TrEMBL record:
Keywords noted in UniProt: Disulfide bond, Secreted, Signal
Transmembrane segments: none
A GO term from the CC aspect: extracellular region
Keyword Protein transport: no
Protein name, entry field: Protein RoBo-1-like
Amino acid sequence: MYSLALCLLFLLLHPVDAIFCFNCTSTEGYNCSTAQQKCSFLVNSCITIARDEDTGTQDVENPVYEKKCNSDDRLCNQFYGLVAGDFRMRWNSSCCRADRCNIEEITVQKASQNRNGVRCNSCFAHGTDFCRNKTEIACTGLMTHCIHFVTRAKKETFSDQQVAFTGCATKNLCDMGAVALFAAGRNVEVTTNMCSFAPGIVSRHSLVWSFLVGLLILNICF
């Protein structure tokens, strides 16, 4: 307690200078603007984001690039991927910790068509805390987990901020990304955040190991 008081006193007597970050949003490319923003004292990094979100039956690439001040390290240097219902998201980011440092080129990671053996129920709904699992989809690439995520508005007036989805996700979206992207800074609370490897899915390594164990048992017994 005494150490904490000393730290707070030091910050009051020696305030940390706020950093400046480039601030813009564009669909034309990562180098979208030279506009700057002075960040609050709570911000410790600048972030550049390249994200591609779309809905519908056609997977059309339409990336959006964003630069801004960042106060959530869960968003730094990540690739988040999600396919749920007719919603698809690929989200890349890069962070740095100096004035006007978020100039690095960043692109959206290409969608993988390689199936990884995991299958998940799939649905997506916005503005509600419920979605019905109507389909099952085959996961691809780094989306090796099945996620079930739901938020509920703290007040009825914020119901449009609710989201509910089930589908294929990257592991880090399960670990922290879903909360950071779909709940943080919104007037909602997370009511469900569950992930799994999809029960019943057997990896290639497991199959090889089972085969070797079987051979060993046969040699011992016969």
